[in-house]
Design brief:
Layout lengths: L2 H10 L4 H5 L51 E2 L18 E3 L6 E3 L3 E3 L1 E2 L2 E2 L1 E6 L2 E10 L5 E2 L3 E11 L5 E8 L1 E5 L4 E7 L5 H8 L8 E13 L12 E13 L8 H7 L12 E7 L2 E7 L6 E4 L3 E4 L11 E5 L9 E11 L2 H17 L7 E4 L6 E4 L12 E3 L3 E3 L3 E9 H11 L8 E6 L7 E6 L10 E9 L2 E8 L5 E3 L3 E6 L2 E8 L5 E3 L4 E8 L10 E5 L3 E3 L3 H8 L7 E9 L13 E8 L5 E4 L5 E9 L1 H4 L7 E9 L4 E3 L3 E3 L3 E2 L9
């Protein structure tokens, strides 16, 4: 449509402004928005005399100007590393300008001297200087060129109860060993700067961390426009500063290191974490009091147990994979597990009045707070079998991912003989295999060990599912369902209702002691509160399942944890051997051919008077070997083909031997 045609069409359908926009100019005559009900219909409303607005601008008949792709450089013209995304991060794999090399931006962690981070004070031309040493985390990939800067970041409490983040930059950064070692230096010239930094690195409340900033210059892709024909991909040059926290985080100095950094004596105003021992059920448990916030206490889990995963089946957090091999001694089995922390709420409740009294002595007036200790570098120590024998001690596993709050995740690879001991230990046959501890430095001083146990009959995580049926202030009915793969024995149940921070005890009725529930079986119970409950939805029911034990179904558990997707197999070489006398027969007929078929072999083997020996590979599933079962016997049969054209078929024979004779069979056998 041309501009003139559009204007004529607009004139034809033009509507007065008062109707078009449903309002009147103040200078026009007043009109009622609704008709008067006392007047008879129809009513005629004349249009007011109002000057028309100017016509709208007509649409450009030539359309909008064509979209232009953003300016940039094409891939073959680049001279700097290339990012595959316009928002690169730590996990991004970059490419060199010519695309021949994959590049990776390395991360950095603090260097350690035994159990202490390599942080020291040095004299630089008469100026005391704080030196922090970090090391590059190896990746096996080529390094993306980058510039480094280092800072110390921590929180300072405010009088209002909050905190502010303070960041102190290290003005000098030195590289050595090809850039693998980074030394950041900070002159301690400011008033009280040494005491301030030592106090930050001595308090968990400060959450002190060493931040390594990596400056990179890369080419990132420009957005593509959906136009035809599609333009070539272009790139633009950007300069980015990517941060990484040099672990451990938070940074916490030991008492001895804090004294050394303070010049041989404890600096004024700098106090370390105070350790308290509180007895519970005949055993002492450690709590750490924060010097900056005396009402804050930190504790350790009671132990770590093999976890269970959420979702349908709640299967154990255990994954077992095996490799194919030609010999048993070449089979390798990888075990990956996740252990979860277990915390006794009764222990914490019993310790609360003792800790509150200690906090009051230190001048704290706020209610006490308890958190899991965010230890800087917990270490997993595990009892691992060696050469098919039980372990003689614990082995440190520094590559394990350990968090006192999140749990322990680790993968270990075993030979077949060692794994058989591990398999038996998972089902409770051994108490000194796949047990261990998590060693915690606890801010310096004597380390503490938290027990770790990996058993399928004692896991962390709910095995029963509670499904509420009816809810009343004085009685709640619910259904208990066994949600796992094995039977469970219900010896006792405890429950509480949590409402607005209050815990209301619930008496469980209908759960007979010693009740055994099969997988998927249900049990109806009633929960009677010690006081009337609020409206439904205003509280949460927490079920204590410490009195529920698992009766492990070995087959069901194995099917849940063994990853058979790769179909690992053990290949055995089997020989079939005949002797010349086997081809003759008193009847005068002779054997022309023996055809031997072996279960698990690819194809059959043939023997003749000129070929008296043949070999083949028989594949056996590895899964049957992992549980300690012997290699299943070979099963084979022979078809005897006679020169007369007749064929005799033998019965299936089983044997443990790997050298098999053909079974000569007459046609009428």
């Amino acid at each position: 449509m041309t501009a003139a045609e559009f204007s004529r069409a607009q004139d034809r359908f033009r509507i007065p402004r008062a109707r078009r926009f449903d309002w009147l100019d103040p200078v026009g005559p007043p009109l009622r928005r609704f008709p008067d009900r006392d007047r008879r219909l129809p009513l005629v409303w004349p249009d007011p005399v109002i000057p028309e607005w100017p016509d709208f601008w007509p649409i450009n008949p030539r359309g909008f100007p064509p979209l232009q792709p953003p300016s940039g450089t094409e891939r073959h013209e680049l001279t700097i590393p290339v990012s595959p995304t316009d928002t690169p991060g730590d996990d991004t794999l970059y490419e060199s300008a010519d695309g021949s090399t994959t590049l990776f931006l390395p991360r950095y962690d603090l260097a350690f001297d035994q159990e202490e981070p390599r942080i020291l004070t040095a004299d630089r031309a008469g100026t005391p200087t704080l030196v922090v040493v970090a090391v590059r985390v190896p990746t096996g990939l080529s390094e993306l060129p980058h510039e480094l800067s280092v800072s110390l970041r921590y929180r300072v409490p405010e009088l209002t109860g909050g905190s502010v983040v303070v960041e102190v930059d290290f003005p000098a950064v030195r590289l050595s060993d090809g850039g693998a070692v980074v030394s950041a230096e900070l002159p301690l010239t400011g008033p009280g700067l040494r005491q301030q930094l030592l106090a930050a690195m001595s308090s968990l409340e400060a959450r002190a961390t060493v931040v390594v900033k990596r400056g990179i210059t890369v080419a990132v892709p420009n957005p593509m426009l959906l136009i035809e024909p599609p333009p070539p991909q272009t790139y633009r040059e950007v300069a980015l500063l990517l941060e990484c926290v040099a672990g451990p985080s938070p940074l916490l100095l030991s008492d001895a290191q804090r004294v050394r950094l303070g010049g041989g004596t404890t600096p004024t105003g700098v106090q370390g974490m105070r350790r308290l021992r509180v007895q519970h059920e005949g055993r002492g448990h450690s709590f750490w009091q924060d010097p900056a916030r005396p009402e804050h206490f930190y504790f350790l889990p009671d132990r770590f147990l093999l976890g269970r995963l959420p979702g349908t089946g709640r299967r154990p957090a255990l994954n077992i994979r095996a490799t194919s091999a030609a010999r048993e001694e070449d089979v390798r089995v990888t075990v990956e597990f996740m252990a979860r922390p277990v915390i006794s709420t009764e222990r914490l409740a019993a310790a609360e009045p003792v800790l509150a009294e200690e906090a009051g002595r230190m001048g704290a007036s706020a209610p006490i707070r308890m958190e899991i200790l965010p230890d800087a570098q917990p270490m997993l120590r595990l009892a691992l079998p060696q050469d098919g024998a039980a372990p003689s001690g614990l082995t440190e596993r520094p590559k394990a991912q350990v968090g006192l709050e999140q749990g322990v995740t680790h993968a270990e690879t075993f030979t077949l003989d060692d794994f058989r001991l591990v398999h038996a230990a998972f089902f409770g046959a051994s108490l000194n295999v796949m047990n261990g501890e998590v060693r915690v430095g606890a801010g310096g001083g004597q380390p503490e060990d938290v027990e770790l146990e990996l058993r399928l009959d004692n896991t962390a995580g709910d095995v029963l599912e509670l499904v509420p049926l009816t809810a009343a202030p004085k009685r709640v009915t619910a259904r208990l369902v066994n949600a796992i793969e094995s039977p469970v024995r219900v010896d006792r149940l405890k429950a509480v209702a949590v409402a607005a921070g209050r815990r209301i005890p619930l008496t469980v009725e209908g759960g007979p002691a010693g009740k055994l529930l099969a997988p998927g079986e249900e049990l109806e119970i009633a929960l009677v509160p010690a006081e009337p409950l609020p409206d439904a939805g205003a509280y949460t029911i927490v079920l204590d399942q410490s009195g529920v034990s698992v009766q492990v179904d070995k087959e069901a558990v194995w099917n849940a944890v063994f990853d058979d997707s790769a179909k690992p197999r053990l290949s055995r070489e089997v020989s079939v051997v005949a002797v010349p006398a086997m081809f003759g027969d008193p009847s005068g007929d002779r054997v022309a051919l023996f055809v031997v078929s072996i279960v698990g072999a690819q194809g059959s083997v043939q023997l003749s008077e000129t070929e008296l020996k043949a070999t083949t590979l028989v594949h056996v599933p590895v899964s049957s070997l992992l549980t300690g079962a012997p290699i299943p016997p070979l099963r084979y049969r022979t078809e005897t083909i006679w020169q007369s054209g007749l064929v005799g078929v033998s019965q299936v024979r089983e044997t443990d031997a790997t050298i098999l004779p053909p079974i000569k069979t007459r046609p009428n056998a």
